[in-house]
């Protein structure tokens, strides 16, 4: 068998059938459109924001939604809409970057454990099981408390909480794929284990990892909001959705908009990501696609 034949081994790439399945699933376009609108608002926040999100208007503090301040003002007179738009940047960035870090690290660990097997697999999966035994928020709380509150530390804390699920997802299909004929042929051709794992194993499990990433990004955004609510998020006055809820909680009875609007933003983002993740899973799985 030639090198070209080995390289052409079966790889589950997105096919026309997958895209057709996504197109037929009208409900999935709700999530795609909603997520696109949120990302658009975050990217163009400087153009869409009517006010500086950090500028205080003390005389206009705790103003209810009006024609001047569409979503009201907070206890420092800052425009809630402007802070909501800029907060989307922080929340989405933390969610995306933490999931990317967790996906790379966790998938690498899972592929190595599944391919090498033996004692190494048992030790790694034992550590993964220990990490999975901790609730996500509790584990993130411990890591964030040790590292301190900052943008970079929050990404690391959330990534650590999500590494174990990616390792578990990557390991199972790796074990099945390494027994396939084209993997044996690659070994007989003298391919190194790193080449086999990177060129032949990874592309075959990438679709499963991408689906998990879309679902866990929603979890990352929830975790970031939860950590910000208890004071372990990005330091104020930088606007984040969780931080806005925390700041508005003291005035929830007489200024409901301070909590409601950031909560709606989190709800819509998580909903959009979950819809997208479910749609990708149904489109990639041939059983549900049929």
From TrEMBL:
SUPFAM superfamilies assigned: MetI-like (SSF161098)
GO BP field: peptide transport; protein transport; transmembrane transport
Main location: membrane
Domain ABC transmembrane type-1: 88-277
Keywords (A to Z) from UniProt: Cell membrane, Membrane, Peptide transport, Protein transport, Transmembrane, Transmembrane helix, Transport
RNA-binding in keyword set: no
One Pfam family of this chain: OppC_N
Bilayer disposition of the protein: Multi-pass membrane protein
Domain of life: Bacteria
Keyword Cell membrane: yes
Transmembrane segments: 27-48, 92-117, 197-218, 255-277
Subcellular localization, as worded in the UniProt entry: Cell membrane
Any single Gene Ontology cellular-component annotation: plasma membrane
Family to which this protein belongs: Belongs to the binding-protein-dependent transport system permease family.
Protein name in UniProt: Glutathione transport system permease protein GsiD
Gene of this entry: gsiD_8
């Amino acid at each position: 068998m030639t090198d070209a034949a080995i390289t052409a081994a079966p790889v589950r790439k997105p096919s026309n059938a997958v895209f057709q399945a996504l197109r037929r699933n009208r409900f999935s376009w709700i999530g795609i459109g909603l997520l696109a609108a949120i990302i658009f608002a975050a990217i163009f926040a400087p153009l869409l924001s009517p006010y500086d999100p950090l500028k205080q208007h003390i005389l206009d503090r705790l103003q209810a939604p009006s024609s001047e301040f569409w979503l009201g003002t907070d206890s420092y007179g800052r425009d809630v809409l402007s802070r909501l738009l800029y907060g989307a940047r922080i929340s989405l960035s933390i969610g995306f970057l933490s999931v990317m870090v967790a996906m790379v690290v966790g998938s690498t660990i899972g592929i190595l454990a599944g391919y090498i097997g033996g004692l190494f697999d048992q030790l790694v999966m034992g550590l993964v099981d220990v990490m999975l035994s901790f609730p996500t928020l509790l584990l993130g709380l411990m890591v964030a408390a040790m590292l301190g509150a900052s943008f970079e530390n929050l990404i690391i804390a959330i990534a650590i909480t999500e590494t174990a699920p990616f390792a578990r997802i990557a390991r199972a299909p790796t074990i099945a794929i390494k027994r396939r004929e084209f993997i044996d042929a690659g070994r007989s051709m003298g391919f190194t284990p790193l080449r086999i794992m990177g060129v032949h194993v990874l592309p075959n499990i990438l679709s499963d990892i991408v689906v998990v990433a879309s679902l866990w990004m929603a979890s990352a955004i929830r975790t970031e909001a939860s950590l910000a609510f208890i004071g372990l998020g990005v330091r104020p006055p930088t606007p984040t959705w969780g931080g806005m809820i925390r700041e508005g909680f003291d005035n929830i009875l007489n200024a409901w908009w301070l909590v409601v609007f950031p909560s709606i933003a989190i709800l819509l983002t998580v909903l959009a990501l979950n819809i997208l993740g479910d749609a990708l899973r149904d489109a990639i799985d041939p059983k549900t696609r049929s």
